[in-house]
Amino acid sequence: MQYITRKSDIRIRLQECLQAYDEEGLITSCDVTYKTLLSHKVKFPLLEFCGEQFYEHLLEIDHIQFCDHIQSLKTEGGNVILGIMLQKRLDHHYEESIQKATAYIADADMWYVCDIIGERVWGVSLLQTPEKTMAVIEAKTHHESHWVIRSLGAGIHYAIKKGLPKVYVKMLFDLLLTCANTTNKEIRQGIGWAAKTTAKFHPDIIRFRESELNNTQNVANWFRKKVAIGLERHQHAKGN
């Protein structure tokens, strides 16, 4: 296994994958992608670049089959590639991209699947079409898979960090509060991450919800701790 850190190196390997697609078809290209890219350690920005190139080069009709095959390989880096491809398809294939992201995350066997896809699909979707995606996020807080609920936290964290307008952050924090009493470890990780980021970037939202946060019947101590950490980080960023 090699550790690939340079774009010049990744371009050579990526070209092998694209050439295999052009000359021998989709399945062979997926096999080459595994051997040349996904069986090695590759920096995430380079894998994101690969995802963009696959999206541009592959026929649109092959996008989802390619993602399905990459997902079936169960590699960490594969999630970056398919996350970017689904993200790129949001404009013209929104519902399908949301459905596939949900299915891939629900099929997860490791926490990083939720976080990688959640940031790149839920997070970017919130930034691009916040009102439409708010409805999706709200519905998925009731999803049967704890992995899917965890992934929402990753997406919310990403969107807030990248400048999601405060009006949507307020609504999202209300949704986070509905999950604030869960005992599931994975949900706590994702929801807590988003709560911490909310407090770091928008402490005024936390002050406005202080009475709800102090309701020990509805809000568990772990949630308050995450909020407290976020507030501390906000003060530290200000130099206090």
Key descriptive features of the protein:
240 residues, 14 helices, 2% strand, 2 strands, DNA alkylation repair enzyme, Serine Threonine Protein Phosphatase 5, Tetratricopeptide repeat, DNA_alkylation, 2 domains, elongated, mainly alpha, single chain, ARM-type_fold, two-stranded parallel ribbon
Q: Can you give me a brief rundown of this structure?
A:
This is DNA alkylation repair enzyme. The protein has 240 residues and is mainly α. The protein contains 14 helices and two strands; from the N terminus they run E-H-H-E-H-H-H-H-H-H-H-H-H-H-H-H.
Give a verbal description of the structure.
The chain is an all-alpha fold. It has 2 domains: 1-89; 111-239, Serine Threonine Protein Phosphatase 5, Tetratricopeptide repeat (Alpha Horseshoe), CATH 1.25.40. The protein has 14 helices and 2 strands. It has helices spanning 7-24, 26-38, 44-57, 63-72, 76-88, 94-106, 111-128, 130-140, 146-161, 166-178, 185-201, 203-208, 210-213, 221-238; strands spanning 3-4, 41-42. The protein has a two-stranded parallel sheet with strand order 1-2. Helix 1 (7-24) packs parallel to helix 3 (44-57). The longest helix has 18 residues, at 7-24. The protein is elongated, with a radius of gyration of 19 Å. It starts with a strand and ends with a helix.
Distance between the termini: 45 Å
Low-pLDDT residue spans:
none
CATH architecture of the largest domain: Alpha Horseshoe
The arrangement of helices and strands along the chain is EHHEHHHHHHHHHHHH
What is the helical fraction, as a range of percent? over 70%
Q: Count of DSSP helices? A: 14
Question: What portion of residues belong to β-strands?
Answer: under 5%
